[in-house]
Write a structure and sequence with these properties.
With about 80 residues, the protein is mainly alpha-helical. It is built from three helices and two strands, in the order E-H-H-E-H. A two-stranded parallel sheet has the order 1-2.
Length: about 80
């Protein structure tokens, strides 16, 4: 079965958006005293990331893999 490389998927990038905002707010800020993300911006980043994850999986037609190996092999 043909797979799509994970880094080419909306699901992956939506998860990255949410994860980076969360890591910044709950790890980087307390550890290094970095500035906080404004509350409204944090909420938008979380909603955007989660929405992209849900949309990406809803419209997906291939499973995710580590590479496009199946596609390259089929050529």
């Amino acid at each position: 079965m043909e797979k799509k490389a994970f880094w080419k998927s909306r699901t992956f990038w939506g998860a990255v958006i949410s994860a980076l905002a969360t890591i910044w707010e709950y790890v980087v800020v307390p550890a290094f005293g970095a500035p906080h993300i404004p509350e409204q911006v944090f909420a938008v980043l979380q909603m955007l990331g989660i929405s992209v994850v849900v949309y990406g999986r809803a419209v997906a037609d291939k499973p995710l893999g580590l590479s496009d190996y199946g596609r390259a092999r089929a050529r």
